[in-house]
Specification:
about 35% helix, 8-stranded mixed beta sheet, 12 helices, alpha/beta, globular, Rossmann fold
Length: about 300
């Protein structure tokens, strides 16, 4: 499939069947891909949890690599991807609600054991939060440019995120009217640059003022102080993360990440000292894009051990 200007259409990169779970009247989109010969309920599941401002499109190549042997589950958080994008009157866009949604999806799919959990960006806090509610579900962890712990004392957000973290008319204009966050991430979060169709695919769901609400509120929901509405939830995840430390863990990290930098990698290493670690100097925040073939092979090998 090609677009009118001759470039590949991003939809050709995402050849999956859309599925939906009703969440209090909202449609929560997810993928459930498996192409092997066995019954999908009898094969190991890999659950992939995205962050902001991406969506399940970010995991498209990993899904293609794994679906012959694994059941690949990749949801889009409410307000993101192909999920509904409601106003704040219908959904609060808080961390606890994100964890509730993922927890409900795992229940709906009856995934109660053997999960390999893949987390990226703010998907780390969401995914680990859901995992900690029922740790017996989780067999392995794949961690890539993310966090599931509170920032260290003295940590400051990069200036752009500091600006976007503020609740103001200016940030609403920048994120929702100009789409600076989604466009900026697609253009700058990869150290090696991305094909045009991939950039378009990453930003495609955020194509109107209303559809960019989640990209703004995700940033505002970063709990930088104890008085933040999501701080207690994030603190609970932080304080209980050790309950997953005995799981085999694979850490894949792009070192050219201006948000989740080497300090975050060091903290993951401290908390998961037996993890297998691959850190790349020539990869950025979108490490799975920069190191696609290698990361797919590493995750595939890891998930069948």
């Amino acid at each position: 499939m090609s677009s009118q200007n001759g470039h590949p259409d991003w939809r050709a990169l995402y050849p999956f069947e859309s599925r939906f779970l009703d969440r209090n009247g909202l449609q929560y989109h997810y993928l459930d891909e498996y192409t092997g010969p066995a019954d999908r309920n009898d094969v190991p599941a890999v659950v992939m949890v995205h962050g902001n401002p991406t969506w399940s499109f970010y995991f498209r190549e990993l899904i293609k690599a794994l679906r012959p042997t694994h059941r690949c589950i990749a949801p889009d958080h409410i307000g993101c991807g192909l999920s509904d994008k409601p106003p704040v009157e219908k959904y609060d866009y808080r961390l606890r609600s994100r964890i509730d949604d993922l927890d409900a999806l795992l229940d709906h799919l009856m995934l109660d054991r053997g999960i390999t959990l893949v987390v990226h960006d703010w998907g780390g806090m969401i995914g680990m939060g859901a995992a900690l509610r029922r740790p017996e579900r989780i067999e392995r962890l794949v961690i890539t440019n993310t966090a599931a712990f509170l920032p260290a004392d003295g940590f400051k957000l990069p200036w752009m995120l500091t600006f976007l973290h503020q609740e103001s008319a200016l940030t609403r204009f920048a994120v929702q009217r100009l789409n600076l966050f989604a466009r900026g991430a697609a253009w700058t979060a990869s150290a090696q640059g991305l094909p045009r169709a991939v950039k378009r695919g990453l930003a495609a769901p955020y194509n109107s003022y209303e559809n960019r609400l989640a990209t703004r509120l995700f940033v505002e929901d970063i709990p930088m102080s104890p008085d933040h509405p999501s701080y207690s939830t994030a603190r609970w995840v932080d304080e209980n993360l050790h309950r997953l430390a005995d799981r085999p863990a694979l850490i894949l990290w792009g070192l050219r990440d201006y948000v989740f930098d080497a300090r975050f990698l060091e903290e993951w290493t401290r908390r998961f000292p037996t993890a297998e670690i691959h850190a790349w100097e020539d990869a950025g925040h979108f490490a799975l894009e920069n190191q696609g073939q290698l990361s797919n092979r590493l995750i595939t090998d890891f998930s069948i051990r």
